[in-house]
Structures are given as structure tokens and as C-alpha cells.
Design brief:
Elements lengths: L11 H4 L3 E2 H16 L4 H7 L5 H18 L4 E7 L8 E7 L3 E9 L3 H13 L8 E4 L2 E4 L6 H21 L7 E7 L7 H18 L5 E6 L4 E6 L5
Parallel strand pairs: 4-7, 7-8
Antiparallel strand pairs: 1-2, 2-3, 3-4, 5-6, 8-9
Length: about 230
């Protein structure tokens, strides 16, 4: 038993419980605190070990941020994350002065490169933020490299935008579904690049008029959301 791989299970019934967005944020903090107490926390967190852990970290987290984005005085916001629906990952409901419900489909900016950097932290306690990185068996080797931070930010903008378009290309969503792209990186995008991302998204919605509620981007390092609703584009 001492060699058993670390894991942290979140039961599906608990994960799929509908919550007020403020309760959702408290629940996330509680689960993270429980997870942190586990032996092998680093492995659990960075390698997504356990039932619903990957969905918790890559879907529930940005969905909660989106819920806060929709919160207004005189409105209550409720969110419910789902595990088994192939078309969307959560339902967001607003009740009060405004009353509506939308489905939320979540995607991320995860790449093979970012996956290896996560795993490097888990397995070696360290990672370079940039530079060549490769696997040798379970070992992950890397070298540091100087980068142009503006060029790196531009690449991230293009990646986030392309992930949103990849979802739209499926053509399976309707006007009641929002696309949420989770940008989970070590470096915060500054306002210039956030503005560029929203302008590119707005232009696409204006020109292509996709059948979608809107496209949103969650910036993981700051737990904030930028986005464009189709009905706001003229």
C-alpha cells in the first residue's frame, strides 16, 4: 500500500451539485484545502490524479469565475458542473432582475508543452517556464531559454482564440451555449493582449455570426473573465 499512487477522488454526485456561485467558490477552496493535506499533493494537483480532479481543476475552476463575471446586484447566479454530457460541461443560471440559463462548454490552452511542464513540477519539483522540454521514459528533461515575452503573449492570444474557433467549428452549439476558454499559464496577459484577444473574438462574431451565446476567456492567474456575448456585438 505504501507504493500506491497518490490520488484524490471527488465523487460525481458532489461534483455535479448545483450551487450558488458564492457557495461554488467556497466549495472549490474547501476541496483545494482538503487536497493540499493529502500525501502526494503535488502529484495529485499537477498530474490530475483522482476521480474528477482534472475536471475540477480545468472546468469547475473557470466556470466559477464565469459565474462571478455574471453576478450583478439584484441577481443570483447558480452553476452546476457536469461530467457525462458530451455537448457542454456546465449550466449557468441567473435569477432575479435578469432571468436566463445558458450551457457552458469549457476548453483550455493546454498543450503537450504545458503538460510536460506540469508533470516536471510533479516529478522533479521544478520546471523552466520556457525552453526545450522533452520526455525520456517518465523523466522530463528541459533547458532554460530566453524569450521575447511579447511574442510569447501573442502566441498565447492566438492559441486561446484558436481553441474557441475549434469549438465553433463543431457546429453543435446553439444560441444558449457559451464557449469558455481557460487560459491557465504562469504569466498574466497584460491589458494590451487581453484587448487584442477580445477584439479578434468580437470581429469573428460580427463577421461570421456563429449560433452561440458568447465566447469568454478565463485568466487563471487572476481568476477573472473577459468575454463577448453575441447580443452585444453590432
Amino acid at each position: 500500500m505504501g507504493n500506491q499512487e497518490p490520488r484524490f477522488d471527488i465523487e460525481t454526485l458532489e461534483y455535479e451539485q448545483a450551487r450558488h456561485v458564492f457557495d461554488m467558490c467556497r466549495w472549490i477552496n474547501e476541496k483545494l484545502a482538503e487536497m493540499e493535506k493529502e500525501d502526494g499533493f503535488t502529484t495529485i494537483y499537477f498530474e490530475r490524479k483522482g476521480k474528477n480532479v482534472k475536471k475540477f481543476l480545468e472546468e469547475a475552476y473557470p466556470v466559477a469565475a464565469l459565474g462571478l463575471h455574471f453576478f450583478r446586484p439584484a441577481d443570483d447566479v447558480f452553476v452546476q458542473c457536469l461530467t457525462g454530457n458530451p455537448s457542454y460541461d456546465a449550466i449557468l443560471t441567473v435569477k432575479g432582475f435578469h432571468n436566463f440559463s445558458i450551457k457552458v462548454e469549457v476548453t483550455t490552452t493546454e498543450t503537450d508543452d504545458s503538460t510536460k511542464r506540469r508533470q516536471s513540477v510533479s516529478r522533479h519539483g521544478f520546471r523552466w517556464s520556457s525552453g526545450p522540454i522533452w520526455r525520456v521514459g517518465r523523466e522530463i528533461l528541459s533547458e532554460p531559454e530566453m524569450v521575447d515575452v511579447d511574442a510569447e503573449a501573442e502566441q498565447l492570444v492566438n492559441l486561446a482564440y484558436s481553441r474557441a474557433l475549434d469549438k465553433l467549428k463543431k457546429g453543435t452549439y446553439g444560441s444558449d451555449t457559451a464557449i469558455l476558454v481557460y487560459i491557465d499559464t504562469h504569466r498574466t496577459l497584460d491589458f494590451y493582449f487581453r484587448k487584442e484577444l477580445i477584439e479578434k473574438t468580437e470581429d469573428h462574431i460580427r463577421e461570421q455570426q456563429p449560433e452561440i451565446y458568447g465566447i469568454y476567456y478565463c485568466h487563471g492567474t487572476e481568476f477573472l473573465v473577459d468575454g463577448v456575448a453575441r447580443h452585444d456585438v453590432w
